[in-house]
Amino acid sequence: MSDNQQQKDPKSDKPNKKGPPPMPMRGLAISFLAVAVFLVVLQLFTRSPDAANEMSYSAFMKQVEGDRISKVVLSYDSSGNQFATGESKDLNETGTTKFKVYIPFRDDTMLQETLKNHGVEIESKPLKTAMTSILINIVPFILIFGIIYFIFIRQMKNAGRGAMSFGKSRAKLLTQDKNKITFKEVAGVDEAKEELQEVVEFLKDPKQFQKLGGKMPKGVLLSGSPGTGKTLLAKAVAGEADVPFFTISGSDFVEMFVGIGASRVRDMFEQGKKNAPCIIFIDEIDAVGRSRFSGIGGGHDEREQTLNALLVEMDGFDTQEGIIIVAATNRPDVLDPALLRPGRFDRQVVVDPPTLEGREQILKIHSRNVRLSDQVDLRKTARGTPGFSGADLANLVNEAALLASRRGAEFVEQQDMEEARDKVMWGRERRSHVLDAEEKKLTAYHEAGHAVAMYHMPECEPIHKVTIIPRGRALGATMQLPEKDRYTQSQKRLEADLVAFMGGRAAEELIFGDVTTGAHNDIERSTMVARAMVCEYGMSKKLGPQNLGSNNQPVFLGQGISSSSDFSEQTARLIDEEVRRIVTESYDKCMQILVDNKEQLIALSEILIEREVLDFSEVDSIMKTGKLPEAVEQPVGEVINTEEESKENKDTPSKSEEA
């Protein structure tokens, strides 16, 4: 069927005409205006140049008799007067001059005979009517006034669009007929769903709450890390309650014109009252709701006016009207306190990253339309993705599907899921980045040093994979995966991590007698952890359990402006000494582990140079027997099975890398 043919909508009996979309009205108006301007300019600047060279009738006849005219054009003006135009030769016959002469006698036969006798070519043009002249002069002005009427008068009447609708709200009304989202589509945030379930029940039956005198919160603030599903939760609330859902971004309020933001806030609430009960969702509310007056050079007046209008509107409407404001932000700490007080956003819902059970549920939702193999274990994948948000898990499933498609498979296998997880966590393998023999050997010993130190430190997280294939921005990596979700870190575990961080540099010094810049990231992380142990966690016996951290409040909030610290120079010197002591002791302990297990270090490095990638089972076999296990199949990205699979953590996986 061609594009110009009609097709019927299955949900409607009316035919739908396919074809190019109609020109927007504003674009059509601009086109008409351009044509009108062109015609006016043409009328003003294209007057006949021979009007200034009018000639008398007698002079014209003398030139005809003198054979200085070879051709004339007989025409009529709008009044019916006949005139002739043409070109006459100069006296010296070196050039020509255009002329125009009015003929006093209408249909002068003697003139025509004279012209013929002297060989003058005669051309005649039809008479111009008065109506034609009037149209030529008036039509451009009609077009101009028509465009002015269309742009200003019509657009002022049409409040939804046009040049006069700056102050109208840009909130979009999402209908529930298409792509309706319910709580079944949201997983991994059970506590947040329970908090919002009350909002749904209130929108469905407000009288149930009002008969006992209770009032629902006017606003619900969803806060959490990016990708945890705040916007999806708000849409699910609207889908469950089956009410109109207005959505707008915080940045849509502020424009270059003063007062537009406040006007849009007022109009948004007016639209909400007309469609009550409804939900108004403001995404990224920190763009307009930041604390007023930072104390440095004053605040942004337009943004403050918009915030003031939002505060007044939220305090002015009653929950009995059935309007509930749902807002989302990644930075609740920068919001104005007046916005968070009871009576405005009086309920704050924290959307945390999903736990182990939540990650498994999210993977099941995102893999419903993906052809998974029977061998794919989503529980295993969930265990290997601690700290992942819902958006990260959706990206992981998509990457696995792309990897399977790239290799021409019919189903997504477990190895695709593991490779996708490694790609999302640590970057894609750069096999084209070829290392020479010397650099490859140095990288192998560096990563083997990390692996040996981790293996002999029971407090460290288990080894997942050791590779010297460049991945992401690192030449090699020793990857770890937590056994379970963890919410706190003990001092012994932090000290074990410091020892593992130093494994690469210690191996370089032990084997080659020299150190390289490859351990700069390890040193940076070690220093950061050691300073946090001393200043924030109170894990130094010399300084005791006190907080000596610096004030890192954002400057734009008017806080943290002073660079002076809260402790003396002597205390600062003690902090430096303690940080140096912790890092040095960790390095010495790591060096002792590598010296005691030098044979394991050499064996692991030599096999790593040959194989390039080793998983935990192979590393474990090399540590115990000095060689690879027999008849081992190398599943790329195999996640180690450890006990306590059902426990949950919050830590992000770590890796030691050579930059």
TrEMBL record:
Chief location: membrane
Binding site for Zn(2+): H446, H450, D522
Keywords: ATP-binding, Cell membrane, Hydrolase, Membrane, Metal-binding, Metalloprotease, Nucleotide-binding, Protease, Transmembrane, Transmembrane helix, Zinc
Keyword Iron carried by entry: no
Transmembrane feature ranges: 27-46, 134-152
Main enzyme class: hydrolase
Residue ranges with Basic and acidic residues bias: 1-16, 647-659
Subunit structure: Homohexamer.
Family stated for the protein in its record: Belongs to the AAA ATPase family.
UniProt function note: Acts as a processive, ATP-dependent zinc metallopeptidase for both cytoplasmic and membrane proteins. Plays a role in the quality control of integral membrane proteins.
Protein name, per record: ATP-dependent zinc metalloprotease FtsH
Organism, as annotated: Pontiella agarivorans
Species classification: Bacteria, Pseudomonadati, Kiritimatiellota, Kiritimatiellia, Kiritimatiellales
